[in-house]
Fold this sequence. Notes:
heterodimer, A: alpha/beta, 30 helices, B: alpha/beta, 4-stranded parallel β-sheet, 41% helix
Amino acid sequence: MITNEKVQEKLQIPPTKECLSEERIAYLDRLVGQARTAAYVFTQFTQEDVDRIVKSMVLSGLEQAQHLARLAVEETKLGVMEDKVIKNMVATEFAYNYIKDKRTVGIIREIPERNLVEIAEPIGVIFAMTPITNPTSTVLFKCVIAIKTRNAVIFSPHPNAWRCSSEAVRIMYESALKHGAPEGVFSCLDLHTLQDNAYLMRHKDVSLIDATGGTGAVRAAYSSGKPALGVGPGNTPVYLEKTADLNTAVVDIIVSKTFDNGTICASEQTVVIDDEIYDLVLKKFGELGAHICNEKETELLVRTVIDPKTGFMQPLAVGQNASDIARFAGLSVKPSTKLLIAQIYGVGREHPLSVEKLFPLLSVYRAKSVDEAFRVCVDLNHAGGLGHTAVIFSKNEEVICKFGEVMNAGRIIVNSPGSVGAVGGVYNDLVPTFSFGCGTGGGNSTTDNINIYHYLNIKRLARRTQTHMWFRVPNQIYFNMNAVENVRQFPSRSTIIVTNSTLEHIGAVDLVRRYIPEETHVHVSVIPDAEPEFKVIMQGVEALNFYKADQIIALGGGSVIDAAKIMKLKYQSPEADLEELAMPFLDLRKRVVEYPTAKAIRVRLIAISTTSGTGSEVTPFAVLTDKERGRKVTLADYSLSPDVAIVDPQFVLSMPKGLTADTGIDCLTHALEAGVSSYASAYTDANAMQAIRLVFKYLPIAYEHPHDEEARSMMHNAACIAGLAFSNASVGVNHALAHAFGARFGVAHGRANALMLPHVITYNASVPVKFLPSPYQKGYVAHKKYATIADLLGLGGHGTAEKVTSLVAAIEQLLDQLGFPRSIAELGISKEEFERGMPDLTRLAFDDPSWRSNPRMPLMDELVELFWKAYKGRGQEKVASASQYQDA
Amino acid sequence: MTMTAVWLKVDEQRFVPSLQDAGGKLDSVEDEVVLDFSSVLRIDPSAIRAMEEFATIADDKGVKIVLRGVSTSIYKVLKLVKLASRFAFTD
Lengths: 888, 91
């Protein structure tokens, strides 16, 4: 005798009092070993091989259907021989019909539109428990789907059905072997114990348990720690609704409940009948051979067929015919009685016949309303049949769908028999099966009808997809001197000009008004010359509502245009929640929060930029200042993009030097960040590169010679072109840092960008500590793109690193030329103050969506380091040596 | 006479006898036996048993077994039945 510890060691379960002999363990190990070898050998078989074997097995099963049915009835004393023949034929012929053309070897499905390929991998060794109620059909079915999927099966039949089940295994095995299946592919335990099952269920070489049987077997399978398919018990409720075709319903229910004497676990248990048709339905049942029990007969039946201790059905009644059950109970019924019907008045232990009854005894319930019928069906569903099957007979689609929603059942059979319907392929298009998945309600992992796909590991070959990209810009962009004249072509009844006091004062508003058609009512809304606050936005929206505006002309820099964008949004969609719309997102196309679309009101937004930097006249972004929390809120959506952009340099001729420098560097930062963005494309690159070239050439001129029209015009165009680039490629970590720093220390955006720029380029050009997943790029290219920019600017240098160094140096030189401070320290911010602000700075920078498109992922420590570099100042950057890069 | 290596072609139709023949020659081998599997398309449970026995005899005699031209599907079977580690493989 082997020791208990040794068994436990093999079983890998806590010690039990039970133990197996050494001989028994050797026998079980041998079975598993043979099955394992067979399963592995089977992996070499082709689809054609398995299809040939399956066909031969199915033919053998059909040939032996009657022999096996007879054996089953003789041995189990359950059910109806003729019905078991049908079951055996369904298990083979119907299963075959479903699987014959399905691929189960190699590539089984290709989904080109998703670049996915599914490849089948066999499970290996399956340990299958089969029930007493369907002892041969279940074996036939499992053998067929196992061969189709190249698996080996060890069968453990119900002990009281061992002879017929093992005969079914033998027939299938011999047929399979004869047609080339590997030796050992099927085996059947000899007469066995629960300990044998427990040992096999935990055996290291058993890959899957398929338990079709009683609750105990299913529970044991699920608690074994192995992947398992288990079929829970049923308690099928039927709702017979008043609109149903009663003749069909009554016959279908009789067919189903009497099929194989009700041994299929999906068969009808209680019929809930609408009050209006109740008497008629019972009359029809009676006419077709059912015996309607009176109160006394019902009581006698309960005593006979229900175990008073457990409340479950008595095994002696299972699979017996109606007249025999009546005889056991002492009822006098006609010998031809097909079905016994007993009324119940509720569900639960006080109503014993409300449980599962695997024999031809049907309980009926009279429901006064649809709601009551649903309640009773739900109760029945919860009284032992969760996840299994429910049936409805009705012509009312609404009631049918509601029933489907309410029932917790893997199969909801409509206007057809429950048992034969649930098996699939006969009355409906459900997948043919002899194992019903019952979902979590039944303690199962699936609600499916178990079939071939549950016997496969399906591997998915996922090819890289070419993600769709975009290049979205406003419909109309007018540029060059006097482009503002184009305002006249836009008809409007009521226009609001949003601007700031300076522009109004210098006559810019009057200049625009000159081109607005005379019939248009024009109103001017002057807002503070600062990044807009919510209060300012809402005042603007009030004005829009008051004047019932159909056009907004935003005349100003980024702040004014951003304010106008948000005013338009709130005017068209008052319900828009800015706080929610500003929620962070990873991918613009997959974001959770969706921007509202304008419904009742539609307004045109014309943006006329009066600075050369933000590009706001063409971008889908708007920045709002949240003064209370000391932060900036960035809104991003293409619905924010202006409808028309006017890029007229006459509005920037008088821009002060400081503003020229700040906005110019903002423009350069946009272009540089879009250029190396993980969203960059050939379309955005074209714009980014052109903008960079224009800035390097014309910004110093515009700064030194403010009245140089060409320089002003080119810088104005550069800002817009950079805007087109970053509208589609977005920006990067430079902006995240600048937003955080600007908000915390009140520094202008362009200036904040300038302080970070050389450090960020050096950072992005080095090998990332952490790469950012980017389906749009092939490999890490930021350093190469900086080198390309250096080439474009003619900066010289050999190899990537030298070129990046040249670019950084050129930018530093430009910043010096424009009089920018070299460090944050130069702004008069003390080291202590900066250090105190660091936690806020890093948190704000990391929360900022701008860096999501940065080529490398900024880690918190790296953000801190970048801030400190900016604090200490430029001129300290050393670009990584060329050896770090692959120039090729 | 002592040989340092023996080259044997394995015939799929006579797999088990082929291996048994090879087993008989192990006494005269000093270093290694190369079994040419290039014409074997599939192995069955009896082939696996024969290979297991052959590997055991070779281990006892300290002879290295090299399998040549083993198809991927056969290699996968040998891996699954934990026999792959007992052989060397070559193209």
